[in-house]
Amino acid sequence: MPKRNLRFVKRVRNVPVLGICEYCKAQFSGDPAMGNAQSAIQAQFNVHKCKPEDAGQPAARAVPEGK
Ligand SMILES: [Zn+2]
Q1: pTM for this entry
Q2: Of the residues 1, 23, 30, 51, which has the maximum number of CB atoms within 10 A of its CB?
Q3: Would you say residue 5 has pLDDT above 90?
Q4: How far is the CA of 34 from the centre of ligand 1 (A)?
């Protein structure tokens, strides 16, 4: 599990509305009108899967590795 950190980059009236994963730069937004934007963002962050920064590897490789 890579070490990752949630950073809030935007706040409205002291309530965080936009957070990013410092590891993979994924963004998570919350609705300040809901009142629990911070925990909503935190929850999205908790369940997201970090993408490696150099995601240039083609996933579809038809030839299987020999065993
Ligand atoms: Zn991430």
Answers
A1: 0.70
A2: 30
A3: yes
A4: 24
